[in-house]
Amino acid sequence: MIIRRLTPKDLSAFRALWADGLMRVPTAFLFSAEEVRAIPNRDVERGLEVNMTLGAFDDAKRLVGFVSARRGGPQRMRHMADIGPLYVRADAQGRGFGRALMEAVLQQLIDAGVQQAELVVDVENTGAQKLYRALGFHAFGKRPRAVLIEGTGRDDLLMIKALDGTDLTRGA
């Protein structure tokens, strides 16, 4: 297994894997397949340059998973980062790629001085929630009807992890 930052040279493989994820697990993504197809390649390449997007490659050097993280934009929010989406191909699940991607992105955030990481996960995605909890995330809220998929509201669980040892559960 190889985990590394994706670059614009990975555009084709990244877009193909993103499309696979949108087809198989549309609730794991904010954008719809139509919206993703409409994003010009130059914009996706720019996202790969600006955001921290890590890819997991199997022994055949095939991209089988990815995770993205975006640091807060304004100076007063630079201490935190949003993680997501995380996606691993169906035929590569259960082999540690998701955990390895999350551990790698968390370490890179720590190395960059980020103090906390946040993510959202569909309330029905218990497998992902189990992974996030095992990595030290805890729920701090629920966003009802966070997204509408084909007219049906889906709730998101909000999760957070302190990367600097602070107890973020105080008062929760």
TrEMBL record:
Pfam families: Acetyltransf_1 (PF00583). The keyword Transferase applies. It comes from the Bacteria. InterPro entries: Acyl_CoA_acyltransferase (IPR016181), Bact_Acetyltransf (IPR050832), GNAT_dom (IPR000182). PROSITE patterns: GNAT (PS51186). Keywords: Acyltransferase, Transferase. This is N-acetyltransferase domain-containing protein. It comes from Marivita lacus.
